[in-house]
Amino acid sequence: MKKFLIALSACVLLGCGDYSSQAQRVLPWAESKELTVLVQNGPTTLYVDAEGRYAGLEYDLVTRFAELNDLKVRFIMVGTYAEVVQRLKQNEAHLAVGVHRGVDGEGLLFGPAYQNVTPVLVYAAARSEADVLREIQQGHAPLSTLPQYLDSLSQQKAKYPSLQINAVEHADNEDLIEQVSTGKLAYAVVDSHAADVAQNYYPNVAISKSFADNTQQLSWAVRDEDPQLRTMASAYFRQVMAEGSLSRLQDRYYGHVNRVDTLDALTYLGRIKSTLPKFRATFLQAEAETGIDWRLLAALAYQESHWDNESISPTGVRGIMMLTNDTASLLGVDRLNPRESILGGARYVQMMRKGIPETVPEPDRTWQALAAYNIGLGHVEDARTLALRLNINPDSWTDLKGVLPLLRKPEHFSTLKYGYARGGAPVIYVERLKSYYDILVRFERPSKVTLPEFSNTVVVHNPGNLTLDINSKLNIEKPKRLASL
Hints:
Layout: H1 29-32, E1 34-40, E2 47-48, E3 54-55, H2 57-68, E4 72-78, H3 81-89, E5 95-100, E6 108-110, E7 115-117, E8 119-124, H4 129-137, E9 143-145, H5 150-159, E10 165-168, H6 173-182, E11 187-191, H7 192-198, E12 205-208, E13 216-223, H8 227-243, H9 245-254, H10 262-274, H11 276-290, H12 294-305, H13 325-331, H14 338-355, H15 364-375, H16 377-389, H17 397-403, H18 410-413, H19 424-443, E14 458-461, E15 482-484
Parallel strand pairs: 1-4, 1-5, 4-14, 9-10, 9-11
Antiparallel strand pairs: 2-3, 5-13, 6-13, 7-13, 8-11, 8-12, 10-15
Helix pairs in contact: 10-19, 11-12, 11-14, 12-19, 14-15, 15-16, 15-19
Subcellular location: Cell outer membrane
Domain Solute-binding protein family 3/N-terminal: 34-257
Enzyme class: lyase
């Protein structure tokens, strides 16, 4: 799907590289009560998720910061990292997020570092890492990267004078990973978090962390004329770090990466093409009946049976949704009939979700319901009870997945209603399922187009009509301009 968000204010469209001529200075945020924020779109910053909602680590951090300070937010989506920095310096925004601390920092003030990233090398998985490193170091193949990593790679250049480095100006991390995957580029250096997130749906790409080992820090940046905003941001990050909400957000977006190995991802991608079409119509019908994203139900079915209706476990669960005989009887379905099993499994997820308190926010409520699908609602209720006893937030999936494994310890399960459980199993189950869902969202369209809800306090301004949907990135070709170092 190629869904584009229409710009939300009447600004002139910005073309590639011509943003300096289109500068529009912002009013002071203390006067306008609106914070203008520059952000590069992507799965590690800001995007439209599978449910049609704005999401991303930077989106969540900024909106919470603005709410605490009684400010409105206007995000400006930009296509390149260089544009983020340059437009901030031109006073077109008050804040830039996801900025490499100290890189191109003249005229800027940086807030606290809240995330470490490492430049990593991506290359075709069929090659050996030793051969790849040798070829690059001897200058037999060019190495492409983004401008923010040129300083890091200059150290490698000094060590290996034959090294060929190309700076890709109008691209992002995922663009480079995609081009390595398709063979358009031999090698690229990208953000370690972006590489980890992308590897599940580009499983033919391998990652080397031994090429450039200098860690860089991400922070928010403001113009040096605005020390008050930097002070506010510093206080905010001290707060979110102390209370643990920063680590919860990082876990939400990165906690499930690397849960699917390369072979499993390749098998899954193959079955999306060969097997999923047989069941797609039924998954869509299940969504129509329950309101649960058909792709999440399909990911659940793959987690359960790899879309094999003949599947049977040692404990007697069977069929594509791996229902027990008792559950199938409760739902009134024939679990060996794939259509009935899928529809019944979807209703069972719905039942589990209704058993989770409505006060639990999404997506945490769904993840807890899927844990209940695996281990039973009673054990999830026990884990929530134990979380309260331990002064841990039972509504947060990130927190609850640290409590569930305690259900196997006698000092805990002996005091709970439903007793012993292998509580680590549903944690692994849900985290792998989330990875399958993310992959499927990249390749399969939703049943309907859903625009993000309008907000009086948060506006996402997309003047370049960048594609923000997480599941449309793979189908886009963008012009690239290379400049040799």
